[in-house]
Design a protein that fits this description.
Blueprint lengths: L2 H16 L8 H15 L19 H17 L3 H27 L3 H13 L2 H6 L4 H23 L6 H17 L3 H17 L3 H26 L7 H9 L2 H5 L8 H11 L15 H13 L13 H8 L10 H22 L2 H10 L6 E4 L16 E4 L1 E3 L2 E3 L11 E4 L5 H13 L4 E6 L3 H9 L5 E7 L20 E6 L1
Parallel strand pairs: 1-5, 1-6, 2-5
Antiparallel strand pairs: 3-4, 6-8, 7-8
Helix pairs in contact: 1-5, 2-3, 3-4, 4-5, 4-7, 5-15, 7-8, 7-9, 8-10, 9-14, 14-15
Amino acid sequence: MRLAVIRYIWLLGALLVALEPAYVHPDEHMQSVEVMMQRLFGLKGTIPWEFQPEYAARSFAPLWLFMGPALVATRLCGAGPRVILGLLRIQGYFLYVLLTRVVVELVGRTKLRRSMAAFLLSTTYVVGALQAHTFSNSIETLIAVAAVGLLEVVIADGRAGYKHYRLSGVLGFLMALGLFNRVTFAGYMALPCIVAFWQFYRRQWRSLAVVILCFLITSATCVWTDTRFYGTREWVVAPLNNLMYNMDVKNLAQHGLHPRYTHILVNLPMLLGPGLLFAFGGIQTLSLPLLSCVSGVATLSLFKHQEARFLLPVVPLFLMSVDLTKLRTVPLTLTLKLWLAFNAVMAVIMGVGHQRGVITALHHLREEPIGVQIWWKTYSPPTWVLMNKALTVSTTNFVGEEERIDQVPLDITQDHVIDLKGCDIELLNDTLSHFVAQGSKVHLIAPHSVARQTALLSEHYGFDIRQEFQTQVHLDLDHLDWNQPSSFAPGLSVYAVT
């Protein structure tokens, strides 16, 4: 089968994967849609620490630019959460597909190389399972790819005497927007910007002045926007606040510390799989996209909190740097087959099944009045899906090493969502006991991977548990126990507890 046919089939499959209600990481909702829905629709829900005024560590400006128009349109049309989530993912999908296609034309040296790069960019599982999701990392990827593409044009055409005032203005805008979206953007741009300065801007000071001016104007606009939305008296510089927070290892420890080699030895293989073999002989020159990968991974590896999604921009930038026509050290046909197999499996795991039941259960629970929902051993529920303007959301707290429910308002028995995260069954029992004793309408939402523990609630704690809803399409990869085969069971259920 011709590669072009495979490419288009894969792109269609990626679109279908993007529309699946899989849930890759809480931040794809909490740091984007959850915040925006509260602002635009007047909903009540979870406010992540980054968007609390005392931290003000994330900027509203990129969210309004990338999600605002779509969300305003859905509000005017009276759309429900399924349509809203679907529209945002379709938008993310097409922005990625179209942008990478354009940039490949700018950075590819030959028609064959551009064709092979387009094939790799279209067949990575990242397209539908990660990039189409509403991560700030997805926005960072789009801005990074666009900026690298424009830097390529500036350097190439600069040799012919072009001044590139307009492109320089756009670059200044993108640099500021990328920085206010995620402070890590600076790491991805470090080496490409040094090269661009040395090869073009050191001789074109007026063009450099345009970059700086547009950067400052965009930054000032973002600062003004954030100060207005956070409602503080002092100016809010979100990237600076974020950087200062992440420079403190004690803060990072709250989110999880990893060895500094995690990005290189774990996260890159998770994202690229057999694609890493393309680096052996398939990369001949240090192109701008590759330099962006190097500086990005090197910068992010300095910090001890390392998640795979932080490297999302690396995927398209690395694949743009590969020249399969020069691949000699590994068999090309075998490598491509492994590449397609890896991405097919990961698309199903991450893009179709991963924590999918959380979103599915929320759609079900939205259809009836909300009493008390207790979520256990799942990802934090993105409560915007409930579209509730009177919701109370609470979770556990820690006193030393002990997890407790001191901050859970036990007297609120209506429109109350409690995220117990991965607490032990004793704390779950205490929470259920408080609300059941008050005669509250209580729902417990838990994955089938902990079904044996859930059964203990009736066998040892005396609760009456009745299954009201279940879905078998739910993968819980966080509580796998090789000594307990039942922990591999897929699915999630909603139980009525009395």
